[in-house]
Design a protein that fits this description.
Helix content is 24%, strand content 26%. The strands form 6 sheets. Strands 10, 11, 12, 19, 20, 21, 22, 23 and 24 form a 9-stranded mixed sheet that branches. Strands 14-7-6-18-26-25 form a 6-stranded mixed sheet, with helices on both faces. The longest helix has 15 residues. It folds into 2 domains: 204 residues, FAD/NAD(P)-binding domain; 140 residues, 2-Layer Sandwich (D-Amino Acid Oxidase, Chain A, domain 2). It is α+β, with helices and mostly antiparallel strands. Bound molecules: flavin-adenine dinucleotide (FAD). The site of flavin-adenine dinucleotide has 39 residues, from helix 2, strand 19 and strand 24.
């Protein structure tokens, strides 16, 4: 099972480094919040659970990229508690992505938020990261004879795409088999994203702004009393805040139901990644190679390896999803129809849940019926590339600010569009 090399904010790290707000450790009801890192489930027979109540302005549930980007940006002017069920933020989908930024990808709201995120990726604030957040990796789309119409559609709609000859495509991807592609196009302005640096940067920003990350803190009971949301987490601690942001990824509808809020009909879908050694090919400078019908792609991983995916979308219940052997075999088979790469063995494989709303646009905004309940879910296959702008939009909604150019996405991402009238 592959996961991104996110430096885990382990309880040890957090105890020594964490929760230092501008005025020192945050104190709520006289206790330093640093103890939150020790909210592990109690061992059977150990009856000394830490029980405490913590009051903030905003609670964010889920510390993947959606929750981390929102929490850090909300924390510019609010007290924030970010709750994460696992002991590593990024354990689920955020740590399992292909880490690409592609403008010509996804529905209109995704393209707006992807475009608005670009400046952050290119020029993050001073001190945010020590490594660049993005590095250029063009996309090369291939069309077989049956996919020519799809290629025409892509070229007609896409921004910054140029048609190239099959010979030019083969110059970029020398393993391309003769006869597979009859048309090709290149999108130069696409990028690899350093997801670990992005995610850790936002979590550091949250901490610098006095926010709190509580790991091993699965939100269980969620109630609203007297205008204040109350969230009880693993181990019994209780968080209280007037605003609760649901950024629980595949668990978004579960969290809603726990809060007595009507679910949106989110559908988590499994996607598989497979790592192979492409020797004898040197793939370090290859573009991402995609068939235009989205049935497979390959992307260089760590300069010498290839990630292959069959672009699977199998409906799943939210859980710690694992790859299916059949999808691994399909990935290799589809790739090998196009590329002459011998696969001696699969080095590793993984799967992640890409979670979609019923219309595949994101859902960001206040619930139309439940006071103080804000959604940031349905990031699908675009949650990394949209995240700086999506997190900013959540922060603007919490603060009641004009979201500027992101307002163009608001009607498309409004969760109220799924409401049954
Ligand atoms: C194979 C693959 C390739 C991808 N490629 C790309 C790509 O190239 N570019 C791109 O932009 N996107 C890509 N994606 C999609 C992207 O990874 C996701 O959209 C994004 O990571 C979703 O982030 P999230 O924060 O919503 O979800 P998650 O990262 O899953 O975070 C949700 C968090 O909520 C926590 N949680 C759930 N319930 C509770 C609870 N009750 N209490 C507390 N915490 C809770 C979970 O533990 C989890 O950590 C890809 C995804 C996959 C699987």
């Amino acid at each position: 099972m592959h996961r991104h090399l996110l430096t885990p904010l382990s309880p040890k790290n957090l105890k020594t480094n964490g929760f230092q707000g501008p005025l020192g450790p945050w104190r709520v009801q006289g206790r330093a919040l640093a103890f939150l890192t020790s909210l592990a489930p109690q061992a059977p027979g150990n009856h000394s659970p830490v029980m405490d109540t913590h009051t903030t302005d905003v609670i964010v549930i889920g510390a993947g990229i959606a929750g981390a980007t929102a929490a850090a940006q909300i924390a510019a002017d609010h007290r924030v508690a970010l709750l994460e069920a696992e002991d590593q933020p990024g354990y689920h989908t955020t740590g399992r992505s292909a880490a690409m930024w592609i403008l010509n990808y996804g529905p209109a709201d995704v393209r707006v938020l992807t475009g608005l995120s670009r400046l952050f990726f290119e020029a993050p604030p001073e001190g945010f990261t020590e490594t660049p957040l993005m590095s250029q990796r063009p996309m090369c789309f291939l069309a077989s004879v049956e996919q020519v119409a799809a290629m025409r559609g892509l070229l007609a709609e896409g921004i910054g795409l140029r048609e190239v000859s099959v010979a030019q495509a083969r110059a970029m991807v020398p393993a391309l088999r003769p006869g597979y592609a009859v048309a090709a196009a290149v999108e130069d302005d696409a990028f690899d994203v350093d997801v670990a640096a992005l995610h850790q940067g936002f979590l550091r920003l949250l901490r610098r702004r006095g926010g709190v990350l509580a790991l091993r803190s699965r939100a269980g009971r969620i109630e609203r009393r007297g205008g204040v949301g109350e969230v009880e987490v693993t181990g019994g601690a209780v968080f209280r805040a007037p605003v609760v942001v649901n950024a629980a990824g595949a668990w978004g509808d579960e969290v809603a139901v726990q809060a007595g809020v009507t679910p949106l009909g989110l559908q988590p879908k499994r996607r598989t990644g497979v790592i192979i050694d492409p020797a004898p090919w040197d793939v370090s400078a290859w573009p991402l190679v995609h068939d235009v019908a989205h049935t497979w792609y390959v992307r260089t991983e760590a300069r010498t390896r290839l990630m292959v995916t069959p672009c699977d979308e199998t409906d799943m219940q939210p859980h710690d999803v694992q790859p299916d052997e059949l999808d691994v075999a399909i990935a290799i088979d589809r790739m090998q129809q196009a590329l002459d790469i011998p696969v001696r063995r699969v080095e590793r494989s993984w799967a992640g849940l890409r979670t979609f709303t019923p219309d595949r646009s994101l859902a960001i905004g206040w619930d139309r019926a439940a006071e103080g309940f804000l959604w940031s879910v349905g990031q699908g296959g675009y949650g990394i590339q949209t995240s700086p702008a999506a997190g900013r939009l959540v922060a603007d909604l919490v603060a009641g600010r004009d979201p500027g150019p992101a307002a163009a996405a608001l009607p498309m991402v409004n969760p109220g569009r799924f409401a049954v009238i």
